[in-house]
Amino acid sequence: MSAGISRRIYERFIYSLLAISALVVVAPVILIVYFLISRGGAGMTWEFFTSPPRNHMTEGGVFPAIVGTLYLMTGTLVFSVPVGILAAIYLTEYAKQGPFVRAVRLAIVNLAGVPSIVFGLFGLGLFVLALKFGASILAGSLTLALLVLPVIITASEEALLAVPESFRQASLALGATKWQTIQRVVLPNAVPGMITGIILGVSRAAGETAPILFTVAAYYLPSLPRSIFDQAMVLPYHLYVLVTQVPDAPPHIQWGTALTLLIIVLGMNLVATVIRLRFRRARKW
Length: 285
Description:
CATH superfamily: MetI-like
Largest sheet: 2 strands, antiparallel
CATH topology: MetI-like fold
Number of helices: 11
Strand content: under 5%
Radius of gyration: 23 Å
Structural class: mainly alpha
Strand order of the largest sheet: 1-2
CATH architecture: Orthogonal Bundle
CATH class: Mainly Alpha
Number of strands: 2
Number of domains: 1
Shape: globular
């Protein structure tokens, strides 16, 4: 009897410990969202979203920064997702496992640990100066693509490896080629995991300031960019400028800018999550 009571007490202790751990993870997110809404909610008006900054950034809105951020995120996805997925397919499906593959995976892990400021300096040296793209959306997108590639490659590899090997064997036994098997069997079942990596990568890129500081961000540029070779205002850097360089900026503009950035990131995550759920429901295993 005493052993049964001790077991129940132990189970309740473990359950309480797990519940507390979950609260520790969720509570900061709730507090951040509440803090931003309470401080910046007053500034979230239609004019704030649709007008450029005025009067030395103490009035107006963040429309150019919103557009610049969306352009930059689109460019990052265009450059990073195809390369990351193709690299993961090669490493899991085609490459012969050995020292070379282990070296590549080690390089990917090390690349994921490089500080973002180093990526910014690399983008400045390669894309802005050496390739003469200048400070532009193109240079910023390529720099952020390099930043998120390790996350996308690693998540895509895990998703591909999670597909049962029996699926591949059955497809090959029916006469399909290796690429047909990858294209029609492996990839559709690995898409949910790949989208998870893309979500994590883009979420990180959307909030980075250091890489775009050297490659794309403009201090004040109320006009919208006309090509990928133009500079652009971007929300993370614009927020940094408002807090550090514009002492007279009203608090509701500063907090509203932070809340706008959070809404964009959460919105992109929500869209990607819906797509992932649709693919996951269509999966047969």
